[in-house]
Specification:
The structure holds two protein chains of two kinds.
Chain A (H helix, E strand, L loop, with lengths): L2 H8 L11 H20 L2 H17 L11 H19 L6 H5 L8 H6 L2 H9 L4 H12 L4 H8 L3 H18 L1
Helix pairs in contact in A: 2-3, 2-4, 2-7, 2-8, 3-4, 8-10, 9-10
Chain B lengths: L3 H4 L7 H13 L4 H29 L2 H6 L2 E6 L2 E7 L1 H9 L4 H5 L3 E2 L7 E3 L2 H8 L14 E8 L2 E6 L2 H11 L14 E6 L2 E8 L2 E9 L2 E5 L4 H11 L4 H10 L5 E7 L3 E8 L2 E8 L8 E8 L2 E7 L3 H9 L3
Parallel strand pairs in B: 2-11
Antiparallel strand pairs in B: 1-10, 3-6, 4-5, 5-8, 6-7, 7-10, 8-9, 9-15, 12-13, 13-14, 14-15
The chains are: A mainly alpha, B alpha+beta.
């Protein structure tokens, strides 16, 4: 019963913002959204599926885009974040936590290394971290968001974002 | 910070995927969507409000009748009553994992979703919608027409799931509202006729005049509407005494409950050319300008004027419709 959302829809008295150039948006933003999901879930097929959902939602909701509130890229990534949350709600974690304990390292025999891609290996390592850290990493390195943009998206301070990411990168580099 | 190992894991989306998605987006309905979001929102709003009414009636159905009666009674909107609610209260339902689907099961669409259509004149739009469209003869300074759109009729059938309803009551702590037996699986139908939306703009400020035949909800005969209303009012957060008082003094066969976010909007009943309407003023969620909505019914049609203007201006627009 999302009444608040529906109420918001019936009360829009602002004229719709001018639409972005969707061809440009598509070309520039598709890789960012796609890689956000790859860094988040480590699965290319799933990344395609969730990227499609994100762009379809953005396309159908484009009348609500507020150029005075957020850059378009930030708006699009905020939709992607919601899509990711919806996915997590409806699915078991893509990479079970236990899998992190058996993640191959660079010393793993060649056949093991061949079975798991670098991105899957990363996501398995990241699975040991809290959900917030996992998302920050995907925003930073998958979506190429700046610390400031991440701060706007997550409600954290910019310095806090930087501190958390620094700590996460140190941890990951140690295990990589 | 040496993070090169993280930066090197990106890759370009496969070209076939990029092309397929681009084609999918291009096949979605064209630009009309942007300007008609208002009319669509109006439809959604009615659907949400009607859903609340359905939640209410579902509490009140006598079990004997529930098993046998056909859909005989019809609820038609002629008046509105505002009820303030705390969005956090309903958010607690979501955080508890209770969704509309949990209550109504699969909503069965009875019509096919169609993109709204733009018309050159109110007469043409009215012909498409099957109503005589009334046009404002007065507008606040600076506003001019930007178009007129008609959305298609929408209808859906809901099936009540008592387990979901009980979860709502439990989550909200409403032991005074009891669910009757024999309710599970009962259905109700909501019909929202075509909606005509006239839009106006003054820079970034928008203004909308919306008109439709009154939406209706059909439901099994014998429903005690005052109990229905009591349940709905309690779900929205009204205290027992006030909910009871309202439930027994209002004609619920023609009155629609309008949930209004507490603190964000003020509201009051108001007379619009001899008809009792509901005026809401304040800041809607996400809006840049203050504004308001005036809703009323007249001669079988339901109207709304919404925009970034004050209540007196909304009333002036409403009273000059011809």
């Amino acid at each position: 019963m999302a009444i608040e959302g529906d109420m918001a829809n019936v009360l829009p008295w602002r004229v719709a913002a001018a639409e972005p150039d969707w061809d440009s948006v598509y070309t520039v933003e598709l890789p960012r959204v796609y890689n956000f999901f790859r860094y988040r879930f480590g699965n290319d097929a799933l990344a395609e599926d969730l990227t499609s959902r994100t762009f379809e939602k953005a396309w159908t909701a484009r009348a609500r885009y507020r150029s005075d509130l957020a850059g378009f890229a930030t708006w699009l990534i905020s939709i992607a974040r919601n899509v990711a949350v919806d996915h997590l709600r409806t699915q078991r974690p893509h990479v079970p936590l236990e899998a992190a304990e058996t993640v191959p390292t660079k010393d793993t025999p060649h056949d093991d290394a061949a079975r798991i891609s670098d991105i899957e290996r990363l996501v398995a390592l990241v699975a040991k971290l809290p959900n917030r850290e996992q998302e920050l990493l995907a925003l930073k390195y998958g979506a190429e968001a700046t610390n400031r943009a991440i701060a706007e998206l997550t409600g954290l301070s910019e310095s806090n974002v930087g501190t958390i990411l620094h700590r996460v990168v140190q941890l990951l580099r140690h295990d990589w | 910070m040496d993070d090169q190992f993280l930066r090197g894991l990106k890759k370009q989306p496969p070209p076939e995927f990029a092309a397929r998605l681009r084609a999918t987006l291009r096949a979605l309905p064209p630009n009309a969507v942007a300007r008609v979001a208002r009319a669509d929102g109006f439809k959604k709003w009615f659907a949400a409000a009607a859903s609340i009414a359905i939640v209410g009636f579902a509490f009140t159905l006598p079990p004997v009748q529930a098993a046998a009666e056909a859909f005989l009674d019809l609820f038609r909107v002629r008046q509105f009553t505002g009820v303030a609610f705390d969005p956090e209260r309903l958010r607690s339902l979501e955080s508890s994992g209770i969704s509309p689907e949990a209550i109504f099961g699969n909503v069965e669409p009875l019509t096919t979703e169609q993109a709204p259509v733009s018309y050159a004149s109110a007469a043409e739009a009215g012909e498409a919608a099957g109503i005589r469209v009334r046009v404002p003869t007065w507008l606040p300074n600076g506003y001019s027409s930007t178009g007129i759109m008609v959305s298609s009729e929408h209808a859906a059938r809901f099936t009540v799931k008592t387990a979901g309803l009980q979860a709502v009551l439990d989550t909200l702590g409403l032991p005074d509202v009891e669910l009757p037996e024999g309710l599970d699986g009962q259905t109700a139908t909501v019909r929202v006729p075509p909606i005509v939306s006239q839009s106006y703009a003054n820079g970034e400020r928008g203004l909308f005049v919306i008109q439709a035949q009154s939406p209706d909800v059909s439901f099994p005969a014998g429903v005690d509407l005052s109990k229905l209303a009591y349940a709905a009012l309690r779900v929205l957060g009204m205290d027992r005494d006030e909910a009871y008082r309202m439930s027994v003094t209002i004609d619920w066969s023609s009155t629609l409950i309008v949930p209004i976010p507490r603190r964000a909007m003020s509201y009051r009943p108001i007379n619009v050319s001899g008809n009792e309407g509901l005026l809401m003023e304040g800041f809607a969620a996400g809006e840049k300008f203050p504004g308001g909505v005036l809703m009323w019914s007249d001669g079988g049609n339901t109207y709304a004027v919404a925009g970034a203007v004050n209540g007196a201006e909304l009333l002036e627009i409403a009273q000059t419709l011809q």
